[in-house]
Design a protein that fits this description.
239 residues, mainly beta, six-stranded antiparallel β-barrel, six-stranded antiparallel barrel, PilZ_domain, PilZ domain-containing protein, cyclic-di-GMP binding
């Protein structure tokens, strides 16, 4: 596998071997662990309690308080923590004989906890950070997102944007493709002026770190990363 390919699934999520996967799901059910589910039908993450596996093909689960209202079969991204590692899989949720059932005859991925694990967005991809506040002033400026990790983004600010410097706190909305925008407060961790090409106006590049990331937002970001990685891998294959 070419480790220099920024879109390779192994870059952020490493595929778990089949035998290890079977053991993991059995342990998750044995320990009655809670799993986090991001469904395709609603934006909010909900939770299920794993109870037992069936033929290593399905994980039979009980509802929790925040999932009682979920009754629609749907595609979803599931994640859970086990022995300090985080695991993800994309699957289908359905309901049968009083159980919430997750199909587990699918690839399971382990999160690579490298700080530099990021996804480069292709030039044609619609990734925008709408800057709404900087230096106490209100703005409404589209900044192109160059790459994203679970901890932050790199953006290119337009020529009419205010100059930003390391340590500045900004606010804005992150929009990736057709997904609903997520509002963030961010800290500038890197800032560089970009020399103009020809008659083009000068721009700035900035590396932004997400602030106030709790467990729920982290789960949402990691689910987003997995979904985004798959989308780019399918739509923009490397030549």
């Amino acid at each position: 596998m070419n480790s220099n390919n920024p879109n390779a699934p192994q870059m952020i999520f490493k595929k778990v071997a089949h035998s290890e996967k079977k053991m993991l799901f059995r342990e998750v059910a044995h320990d009655k662990m809670q799993v986090s589910v991001k469904g395709a039908v609603q934006e909010d993450i909900f939770h299920l309690i794993a109870v037992q596996t069936e033929k290593d093909e399905a994980l039979l689960c009980h509802h929790t308080a925040d999932s009682k209202g979920i009754t629609t079969a749907q595609k979803c991204v599931v994640n859970f923590a086990f022995k300090s590692e985080r695991y993800f899989f994309q699957t289908e949720l359905y309901f049968e004989s009083g159980w919430a059932v997750l199909k587990i005859d699918t690839d399971l991925f382990q999160l690579q906890r490298r700080a530099n694990a990021r996804i480069d967005l292709p030039d044609k991809y619609d990734g925008v950070f709408v800057l709404t506040s900087a230096g106490g002033k209100a703005y409404f400026l589209d900044c192109r997102v160059k790459d994203i990790s679970a901890g932050g983004i790199k953006i290119e600010l337009p020529a009419n944007a205010p100059e930003v410097k390391i340590g500045d706190i900004l606010k804005g909305n992150l929009r990736l493709g057709v997904r609903r925008a997520i509002e963030f407060e961010v800290e500038v961790r890197f800032a560089q002026k970009k020399d103009p090409v020809g008659a083009a106006p000068p721009t700035q590049m900035a590396g932004l770190q997400f602030l106030h990331v709790d467990n729920l937002l982290e789960s949402r970001l990691l689910s987003l990363m997995m979904d985004l990685q798959r989308e780019i891998f399918l739509k923009y294959p490397k030549k």
